[in-house]
Amino acid sequence: MVRRISEEDAECPVARSVEAIGDGWSLLIVRDAFDGICRFGEFQRSLGMAKNILSVRLRALVAHGIFDLVPASDGSAYQEYVLTEKGKGLFPLIIGLRQWGEAFFFEEGEAHSRLVDREHGLPLRPLELRAEDGRLLGPEDCVRIAAD
């Protein structure tokens, strides 16, 4: 089996981010946390993951500072997984993946879950990447430069 090289010290921010997230399961765990899920059993029921795999993913997300493990908010003996500020910073990524999926993986009129703004119930505007001066940017407008 080929062993994956760690990217935690990579110069590329994308590589370091992927190292912390790990895989698609981890992104689905984070998605569920944004939907209010916070307990191991709730994640397991929502995702249908094997408990041992879920346990490994949650431990890694805690180790990378994406979740904190805290006593249950209801005072019970359970513990809850709560997104940290670093974890909450993944919200635009989750929205970007959602919007990409809506654009490329659903047929016209095909039913899918929707995400709306809580206050007005309106759909979210598509994410946009803008330059410091406000210009809309695409891939052709950006270039990666070496670290200083």
Describe the protein.
The chain has 148 residues and is mainly alpha-helical. The chain has one domain: Arc Repressor Mutant, subunit A (Orthogonal Bundle). Helices cover 40% and strands 7% of the residues. It contains six helices and two strands, in the order ααααββαα. It has helices at 13-21, 24-34, 40-47, 51-63, 85-88, 91-104, and strands spanning 67-71, 79-83. The protein has a two-stranded antiparallel sheet with strand order 1-2. Strand 1 and strand 2 (79-83) form a beta hairpin. It starts with 12 loop residues before the first helix and ends in a 44-residue tail after the last helix.
How far apart are the first and last residues' alpha carbons, in Å? 36 Å
Kindly state the percentage of residues in helix.
25-40%
- CATH architecture annotation: Orthogonal Bundle
What is the CATH class?
Mainly Alpha
> How many DSSP-defined strands?
2
Entry keywords:
two-stranded antiparallel sheet; 148 residues; Arc Repressor Mutant, subunit A; globular; 2 strands; mainly alpha; single chain
Brief overview, please?
Helices cover 40% and strands 7% of the residues.
Spell out the blueprint of helices and strands.
Layout: H1 13-21, H2 24-34, H3 40-47, H4 51-63, E1 67-71, E2 79-83, H5 85-88, H6 91-104
Antiparallel strand pairs: 1-2
